[in-house]
Every structure is written in C-alpha cells, then in structure tokens.
Amino acid sequence: MALEHAILVSLMERPGSGYELARRFDRSIGRFWTATHQQIYRVLRRMEADGWIAVEQVTQDGRPDKKVYSPAEPGRLALAEWLREPVEPETVRHELAVKIRAAAFSDPGALVAEVERHRESHAALLAHYLAGERRDFPDPSGLDAQEQLQHVVLRGGIEYERMTLAWLDDVLATLHRLARTPSTPQD
C-alpha cells in the first residue's frame, strides 16, 4: 500500500487540511500505517499535481488561510482500483522474538525486564484502543457502514493487543521458569 491510498481513505472519510490529516494519522491511521507530517505534506502536493485530490482555500480570521483537501474523481477511481488488487499476507519482523530465542544461549532471566517493558507498552496501547472504542463507538448497533468498518479495524487492533499481551505473559512465565532451572548444554 502506498501512502497515497491511506491518505485517500482518510479524505474519503472526511476532507481536511494537511494539519488535520496529520493529526488523524497520529491518532488512528498511524497505528497501522505510519507517516511523518513531512511525508504527508509531500504526498499531498504530489496527489494534487496528479489530480487525485481537490484543494479548496479556506480563509481564516486572524490566521493564515488553510488548504482543505478532498478526493477528486481520479483519486476515487485509483482507490477503487487499488481496493480490488490482491494483498499479500504481511511478513513480520519481530526483533523481540529473535531475542527470546537467543535467550536459550545466555541467561533467560536477563530478558525479563525487556519483555516487561514491551508488555507495559502493549497494555497502554490496549487501554488507549479501549478508551477510543468507548468514546467513538458507544452504541455499536446504530453505526453506518463507514463507522462499522472503522470499528471492525479498531476491534482488530484490540484483539491483536490482547493476543500480544497473552503471548508476553507466556514468555514471561517461561523466562522466569527457565531462570530458576539450570541450563543444559546444547548439542
């Protein structure tokens, strides 16, 4: 997926300025597709030049004018075409998992603090997702199609974090057990 597609999705959901779009990435889209503010602005300029987005200058009192972006027909067509393209399953690079395997050749207890740090980070992210769900989707029965799809992506993030926390708990239990057991030389 290109950043252009993530931007188009966000603009389809709600037109906005580059600043507003960058904030949306920081708040929600950035959990599964990251981009710096500079990247977003650079891609917006390119999308405007390619005719994928329309730009409206909005006058503001006491502040500089702002540009509000919205999808143009070529952008809508590009998004529809991209939506129909197959997506390959993602490959995951997980440095912590490699370190956990490496602990077999050293002191497993030495990795406990790092795994606990990861666990705290994932627990905080889960709490953030759950708070967002309570805030944004208080009554799931009354959601329109767009909101249902946003909610199902959020629920995927929630379940991913729950699964990760369960795995990290398993890793910690294993590390603690191995730290108490004398190691056996590997053949």
Automatic annotation (TrEMBL):
Ubl conjugation in keyword set: no
Domain Transcription regulator PadR C-terminal: 92-175
UniProt-listed SUPFAM superfamilies: Winged helix' DNA-binding domain
Keyword annotations of the record: DNA-binding
Gene Ontology molecular functions: DNA binding
UniProt key word DNA-binding: yes
Pfam family, one: PadR
Signal peptide interval: none
InterPro entries: Tscrpt_reg_PadR_C, Tscrpt_reg_PadR_N, WH-like_DNA-bd_sf, WH_DNA-bd_sf
Domain of life: Bacteria
Domain Transcription regulator PadR N-terminal: 7-81
Name under which the protein is recorded: DNA-binding PadR family transcriptional regulator
Organism field: Kitasatospora paracochleata
